[in-house]
TrEMBL record:
Residues 108-263 form the AIP/AIPL N-terminal FKBP-type PPIase domain. It comes from the Eukaryota. Keywords: Cytoplasm, Receptor, Repeat, TPR repeat. It comes from Echinococcus granulosus. Residues 11-26, 51-63 have a biased composition (Basic and acidic residues). One of its GO terms (molecular function) is peptidyl-prolyl cis-trans isomerase activity. Residues 1-63 are annotated as: Disordered. It is found in: Cytoplasm. The keyword Nucleotide-binding does not apply. One of its GO terms (cellular component) is cytoplasm. Pfam families: PPIase_AIP. This is AH receptor-interacting protein.
Amino acid sequence: MASVAAVRSLSTKDKKNGKEKTKEGENESGSTPATGETAIVTEASTTHDSISCDDHFDDGGVGSKEESAKLINRMAEALRRAREDGLPDSANKKPPLSAALAYLARHNIRKRIIHVGSASRMPAECGAPGGGIAYPKLTKFIFDYRIRDPDAPEVFIDDTKKYGKRMELYCGKDFQIEFWEYCLQTMVVGEVAAFMVPPRQLVAFPAVNKKLRDYMLDRTADSANPPKHTCAFMSLQAQGGLGYPDLDDLLAKPRMLEFIFDLHSVVLPHEGPKESWIMTPEEKVEAIPRLRQAGNELYAQGQWFEAATKYEEALNLIEQLSLSEKPGDPEHVRLDQMRVPFYVNMAQCQFKLKDYYGAIRSTSEALTRDTDNVKALFRRAQAYSATSDVQLAEADFLRVKSLAPDTMTTCVDRELANLDRIDRECREQERRLLAGKMFSQT
């Protein structure tokens, strides 16, 4: 009976403070409680199915069924607060936004999803602590983009699908249009989303977009009239603008633009080989022998073009490493000598592909660094022979024979015999041509 008395006492207090009850149990319109509160009431009623207004109250006694429902609602609210008081502070706090979403919010960039992507294709390590996405640095995004003025939505300022090229962007490499990185980092593969960007974020955009458009249209700077080194705006004025009237207009009158991104694929840093320009010097040094090994394996399989590509990649890495060294210093000399075997191997691939002049160039590059390289001399002699440069071929073959008489004499003699045959055929062909001209003149 004590518990019933307590309930009746609470109900009596509720009658005296009806206004206060309404604030706690109902919203301003007198309807059911808010969403979060409704969920709590539902939880209480389903957890304690044995509690019933009809079982404990009657219309002629302490209160009505309506008042009982309000009382249960208050009890559920008290239960919720008691549960929250027992949780750690971190459980009651809203999780923080991902860095990309926080950036968009801070710069007033509004996102609108046009087509939902495939979240299942997002790796687990790309999840942000507070929900959303957190791609690691050096993630590569491959996407199409369209740009338009929201006041003229039927006209696109730029559209990569029209150009037939997709855009590639590495996050964390200081791309000149900063907000592009953050917009893409809020997307998943297959998603199409539009971003409304305010004018203050687009002051430098027209000049950067000129470079992108030049690239998409395969336009390069005029090498005969290179631009003078002046400040950006002086240079633009001297050149008569950006070369595109619509971009000149945006430069003079910045305004809100809509950027529509169609994200086709995402390549995480560990999922594929890095491009050379984002490698560290240490990574380049480690990659060079791997490329040589890969090239040798491809050559053994008869994939000569692919093998030559690997050797060329290694040469490019050596060139990039050399740029940071002073010419003549020991490290610069060492790196320069590293090129020799790659040039020799690439020449062999070029010879197999019947690119004889390419083979001559590659072997000559090797011989400028190692004048007595027998392999380079022999392969250049073979290439000269294939192009009917008999005297040059003979000189290289004889030098090979003098440098390696024990191992190369048999091969050189065979090649010299073949060279003699080629020489006779060339002379015979020249004789016939001369004879034909003489008869035609008579």
